[in-house]
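Backbones bend. To wit:
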Amino acid sequence: MAQVFVYGTLKRGQPNHQVMLDGTNGSSAFQGRGRTVEPYPLVIAGQHNIPHLLNLPGRGHCVAGEIYAVDDQMLQFLDEFEGCPDMYQRTLVRIEVLEWEGERSAPEETPAADRIVQCFVYSTATYSPEWVHLPYHDSYDSQGEHGLRYNPRENR
């Protein structure tokens, strides 16, 4: 099982979370909440108001999200879903654990709060240059105060 950190529409309560629950895509299990150790620019961009984590470590904010354990089938599905490697690229990022609910097979495998774990994240290095000038967010909610409503895939 791999660990994946999601910060946008795949989080619980967000428009694309159902793909994380669909067993035909593979297996995923919520492990806990965390935030990136390094700051990154999280922007909402494009005609569909999609959240993008720009692969510019050291700029922006430490970004909040959720940690999932996923099997190989779900990881493959997420690669396709996220348009990897064209739209997003899957990279390893250090995540500070804020809350942990995940299963463990041994006590030493349980990350305590404030512990650092390595997770895959879908960030992008392929973005329009003007995106670096958009407002940076520390978390994403499709119904947030930013007023930029996400346009679901089925409506495009």
